[in-house]
TrEMBL record, chains A, B:
This is prephenate dehydrogenase. GO terms for biological process: tyrosine biosynthetic process. Pathway: Amino-acid biosynthesis; L-tyrosine biosynthesis; (4-hydroxyphenyl)pyruvate from prephenate (NAD(+) route): step 1/1. It comes from Pseudoxanthobacter soli DSM 19599. It is an enzyme of class 1 (oxidoreductase).
Length: 325, 325
């Protein structure tokens, strides 16, 4: 089984396939956006729970989820969905997860496991744990999967297939709770790895938060250049720019909360990025072609590794063609 | 027909479908990489020339091009390919285009048009024009299309379909030469726009050169962080990082030459990017959620415009799924 993290070793283990008490009697999902609605669809499609109770603070989202039929009950109130559930998963932006924990804490049935899907983990533990009655049954998780779209219509059952879900149980979490959450993610098609919240936040600052920040920034910069029209930026975006616009189209609330809640790790990653960029700027200014060539050669190898482990497609240009082609 | 650029108006016109003396008797392509081999395939597939003569300085590339059968004759010597051609297109990295012009200049038949496909244009004019016998028959072009792969095997006939090719004829270029080159690109499936070399270099610094520089830089930064292993960066790359690795896998020689040959515009774009990034860094440090949210909302609109004009696919996550899905 997956052990709880140890202070001296940030990455604890890759999980082996875990067995757990699946299917759940009742699974509750609070927040029915891209991730929440994908989890709901996966749970229904794969028979992972008898009941799939969905809650959202936005009445329009509750109504739409019911229309889509992606759960077995639909609630405006998180506590109502969580009551009687074996596993409750918060799928709201990180800034709102404390409110969810506060709402569900009092109604959780004994032994219920609580989890979440937030993209930062130390802040989630800090915000949610104080409100939960059984501290050893909280297993924070982060599925490293998504698209640039948001809302209940954007989700799909296969979203987690072949992707990683990172569990970050605080010290003292019950082994059985950890293995149950691991089994749930594996049943959704994901690979599971366990690490400390702090290490997670460092790793994701590099692999996700910094790339999003850079993408948002470059799209903003391009929009503001007065010598080049917006229409030119859009027309000639196939030269590279459009790759950045995809992730710069991600949900603004979710990403605001991520940056505000992983401040130190993001600022550290950003500091290194800016240092390296200054060196590259200097190489361009002084015409140091060798420095440029060496970096550009090194980065190719990383792309190959990502394709080798199945985390991206090897099709040229992501396989995308103009519409109709 | 497409007029030659005027000093006071950087963007001269979008072309209307031009007619020209297609098919050519002989088309010569010097440099058989991704773009050169795609042009050769497009010309053959669409019957744009009676002969398609291919030349490359690398004997292995010449042999491979012959093996692939993507031309009608194959040459180690650029002059041999260019002799007797109606249109000669240099498809070598920008740093080598002066050598190509020097080699072909003496053998060009009277009235032959010379063009290129370089990603920077002012430097190309400066390097090639002095070696060409008929100054008014040089029509530099830049197809804004490509993939992260290189070499003769990477090309395909449809690469230019629905993409833009930007012509940057120097003042005084013959109208008929410009319209012939425009007709050639349109016959390859591209849209054609004409602008000055200087304006092209500004526009592409933003839409292509800066994005590549940023992508190369972030991939380098991620590889160097010692608290996070390379294997973690690769495993969890689906959080955003992998989008950057695609363009950071582009040809190192080509991109070194671009940065060295569009120095001023790239440094200017980079300066703005860094300024904007510093402001974003400050917003994170001081917890200014509104500043973050406002930027992240603004950038979504640009993504939508790029999809609306057909320069990217609206499929979530570029439509890519793990291998086998």
């Amino acid at each position: 089984m997956t052990p709880a993290p140890d202070k001296d070793s940030p990455v604890v283990s890759s999980s082996s396939p875990a067995t757990g008490p699946l299917p759940f009697g009742r699974l509750a999902i609070v927040g029915v956006g891209l991730i929440g609605s994908s989890l709901a669809r996966a749970a229904l499609a794969r028979g992972l729970a008898g009941e799939v109770a969905l809650a959202d603070a936005d009445p329009a989202v509750v109504a739409r989820a019911a229309e889509l039929g992606i759960g077995t009950s639909f609630h405006a109130d998180a506590a109502e969905a969580a009551a009687g559930a074996d596993l409750v998963i918060s799928c709201v932006p990180v800034g709102a997860c404390g409110l969810v924990a506060e709402a569900i804490g009092p109604v959780l049935k004994p032994g219920a496991i609580v989890s979440d899907v937030g993209s930062v983990k130390a802040a989630v533990v800090e915000r949610m744990l104080p409100h939960l009655p059984e501290k050893d049954r909280f297993v924070p998780a982060h599925p490293v999967a998504g698209t640039e779209f948001s809302g209940p219509d954007a989700g799909f059952a296969d979203l987690f297939e072949g992707r990683w879900s990172i569990l970050t149980p605080p010290p003292g979490t019950a082994e059985e709770a950890i293995s149950t959450v691991a089994a749930f993610w594996e049943a959704c098609g994901a690979n599971v790895e366990t690490m400390t919240p702090a290490h997670h936040d460092l790793v994701l600052a590099i692999t996700s938060h910094l790339p999003h920040l850079i993408a948002y920034n470059i799209v903003g910069t391009a929009a503001d250049i007065e010598e080049v029209t917006q229409s030119e930026v859009i027309k000639f975006s196939a030269g590279g720019f459009r790759d950045f616009t995809r992730i710069a189209a991600s949900d603004p609330t979710m990403w605001r909360d991520i940056f505000l809640n992983n401040k130190l790790a993001v600022l550290e990653a950003l500091g290194r990025f800016s240092e390296d960029l200054a060196a590259l700027q200097r190489a361009i200014r002084w015409g140091d072609g060798d420095a440029l060539f060496n970096l550009f050669t090194r980065t190719r190898a990383i792309r190959r590794s990502i394709i080798d482990v199945g985390q991206d497609t090897p099709s040229p240009d992501f396989g995308r063609r103009p519409p109709g082609k």
